Amino acid sequence: MSTELKNTKLKNTVHLSESAKVDAGSVQPFTRSQKIYVQGTRPDIRVPMREVSLDVTPTDFGGEINAPVVVYDTSGPYTDPNVTIDVRQGLGDVRSPWIESRGDTERLSGLSSHFGQQRLSDAELTALRFAHVKNPRRAKAGANVTQMHYARKGIITAEMEYVAIRENMKLEEARASGLLDQQHAGHSFGASVPKIITPEFVREEIARGRAIIPANINHTELEPMIIGRNFLVKINGNIGNSALGSSIEEEVAKLTWGIRWGSDTVMDLSTGKHIHETREWIIRNSPVPIGTVPIYQALEKVGGAAEDLTWELFRDTLIEQAEQGVDYFTIHAGVLLRYVPLTVKRVTGIVSRGGSIMAKWCLAHHKENFTYTHFDEICEIMKAYDVSFSLGDGLRPGSIADANDAAQFGELETLGELTKIAWKHDVQTMIEGPGHVPMQLIKENMDKQLECCDEAPFYTLGPLTTDIAPGYDHITSGIGAAMIGWFGCAMLCYVTPKEHLGLPNKDDVKTGIITYKIAAHAADLAKGHPGAQIRDNALSKARFEFRWEDQFNLGLDPDTARSYHDETLPKDSAKVAHFCSMCGPKFCSMKITQEVREYAANQRIDAVDVDVAKGLAEQAERFKQEGSQLYKKV
Length: 634
Fold this sequence. Notes:
By secondary structure, the protein is an alpha/beta fold.
């Protein structure tokens, strides 16, 4: 590279390390909402939630004061107007006092990953690099620092208390306000969801392996969350650059945009340039767990030649990412040499990138998958940093024709075996699932996963229920996501409209997340999760009382709801009108119902009801006296 070209590149990237700014759209508070913090047993446990203020019911409907509604909030400090956001500095430290108080970790003198050391010493990367990288923490010799290890020792950590408070969302106050006077009984398919989530229940679920708190000890900016079938269904959003486009700034913007709309975790699936630097910026600015697929970066290190991968290089990549603070790794350790031939007659073969990489390596060397043969060593790394496993489904079906075949279920059985090995090391583990599955085969996937993997949390990509809708796969997959979430899936990986077509932009990210928030919430309702119906009840009441602003603000996407309403009724006066443009003022069913109620009240219909009942009884007696004949001549 010429000196002139090198200087030009450095000049173009100076902005990132010196003048990077947060995406403006991600830091706007939601209308009529405020960030609240619920205090735990120690002063540094402050659990964020979003409280939506509601208008008073119009006097025509009784003038009732409506209690505010608390909703789950993944946006971190970005929507708190009292916090100054500077992505160059990263987010504030949440967890360091908790980690330090346990006394089982130590601060290293520097990075121990060889690749991490190389990147840190490369002067050409100074302009790209996050400027405030700290030396990482690691477990002391002989220590295990996973949440599962603590749970099995009977210890309730600060993280466990935090997620218990977070899952409840001030449920008792909502019950007292009457917002839960109506909630349909659910069908949980064997899940055991308590009426209130306690820290002890969280500890029990983690100890049993039914739930995980992805929380690397080096991701101290994290606001802890929990993934498990007995908790709220979570969603994941994918971001990441590719060799064809996107910058570090764009990926950080996608992160902050995604968590604004409800992404509970984010996976950085970067496969392009500067993967290490991109990931550092993302983690330092993320209040949600970050997951990765380490084999992607390992492949980039060997120039894309899968056959050149080695265990030593992969091991260094795991350490590199663990020291940065990655909370969970997708590792395709279930792609075994004997399963590869089972994919030959598939319509779409092996569609997982990680799965295809490992399959190619196995065939090139005619050896068993090195992540499988070195699995115990991987566990040793994971428990030194508390990185959770997301055991990858490298043989997932990529078309509904291939759903539930021998390759997919053979790998699932192996993932169950690996789960038990991980649990022997007290390493938190969840299982990844398909994929493309028609509706009638979805429950079999969930049932088999629960059986093979002993109820470890299931994390699925959809599944997509049909293959005929390119450009609309957020819908085809949202259908399957709602179903499998109801059946017991703990986390749903979003699919955007760009699935199979291209790299998603910000709008695609938002569309995918909102689609999957709908699916997850529908699953919570169907399971009968305590408090799931609070928001529905509040919004339905607002709708019936024509409190338009409350309808917008209680929705998952207030901006879109408001813009759709205002396309045809833009004036402020329309925000108090007792109709919308769908039916107009004369045909609104809710307006007509209100008029019927008003008429009934004015005419004392309750008294008329008595008279009607008396009249009907007299007619019935007359019918009997005349011979109880259905038809008679007149």
